User: Which sequence fits this backbone?
């Protein structure tokens, strides 16, 4: 028997007539928690890279822009391009939802490399752009699952990216919506891509020597996230505007995650072979 849930309003509260949505609060929570965790990591005595407050603030700004611009463009280009070509102003309506993790990831990588290049040009960091960027990305690899957790909870509240029809006891039905019980797939992703992935990445950072190899933890994140996402896509309904990409059920999320796994594995191998951090 399915679990019946009353729909939760996407608007958390209003201030002077301005609606504050759960989706926006999820991003705010992710950035706030992420900032304090990033500050904690770069201030540790054994940190592979240390940043002062000005550098940390500049880096956070770059990351926020990378997440929003990359995530939105990724969704526009990969998931619903015909719609946005017909309604170009909707590209900027991020409050309507529609962000791609894979696009956001690319945006953050670009932003971090630009930040690293700028710091080296200003002689505020004395190292190569690649090592500096990969050291930062390794720390972000530990923090990223927290943002994923908040994002997936917001997806569930908004009744987005819901699962495929199911008769499992924990299948859910939102009152007033389709009566078909479905997997609560956003909660699966919150548990795996969020909680479990954070535990794994933190343990790899804290209890292994992988942080001595710039890029190794970032590569691990790519592989682990791709694995969990491909698994969870087995329960998640494909995007309506795309459907399955093949007759045997390949989804866009699985295709992008497979590419991400290969990229992560490549970065991991190259890191172990060429980017040993002798100073750590």
Assistant:
């Amino acid at each position: 028997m399915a679990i019946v849930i009353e729909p939760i309003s996407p608007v958390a509260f209003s201030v002077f007539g301005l609606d504050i949505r759960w989706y926006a609060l999820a991003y705010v929570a992710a950035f706030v928690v992420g900032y304090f965790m990033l500050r904690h990591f770069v201030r540790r005595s054994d940190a592979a890279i240390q940043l002062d407050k000005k550098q940390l603030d500049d880096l956070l700004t770059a990351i926020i822009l990378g997440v929003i611009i990359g995530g939105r463009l990724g969704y526009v280009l990969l998931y619903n391009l015909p719609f946005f070509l017909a309604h170009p102003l909707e590209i900027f309506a991020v409050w309507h939802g529609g962000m791609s993790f894979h696009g956001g990831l690319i945006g953050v990588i670009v932003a971090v490399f630009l930040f690293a290049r700028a710091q080296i040009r200003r002689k505020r960091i004395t190292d190569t752009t690649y090592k500096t960027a990969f050291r930062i990305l390794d720390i972000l690899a530990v923090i990223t699952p927290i943002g994923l957790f908040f994002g997936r909870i917001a997806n569930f509240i908004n009744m987005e990216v819901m699962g495929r029809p199911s008769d499992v006891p924990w299948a859910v039905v939102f009152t007033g919506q389709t009566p078909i019980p479905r997997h609560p797939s956003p909660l699966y992703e919150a548990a795996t891509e969020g909680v479990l992935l954070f535990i794994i990445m933190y343990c790899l950072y804290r209890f292994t020597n992988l942080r001595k190899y710039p890029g190794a933890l970032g590569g691990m994140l790519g592989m682990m996230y791709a694995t969990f996402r491909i698994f969870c896509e087995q329960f998640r309904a494909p995007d309506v505007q795309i459907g399955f990409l093949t007759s045997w059920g390949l989804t866009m999320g699985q295709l992008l995650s497979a590419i991400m796994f290969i990229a992560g594995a490549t970065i991991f191998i190259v890191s172990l072979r060429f980017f040993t951090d002798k100073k750590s």
Observations:
- The chain has one domain: 3-274.
- The chain has a mean pLDDT of 90.
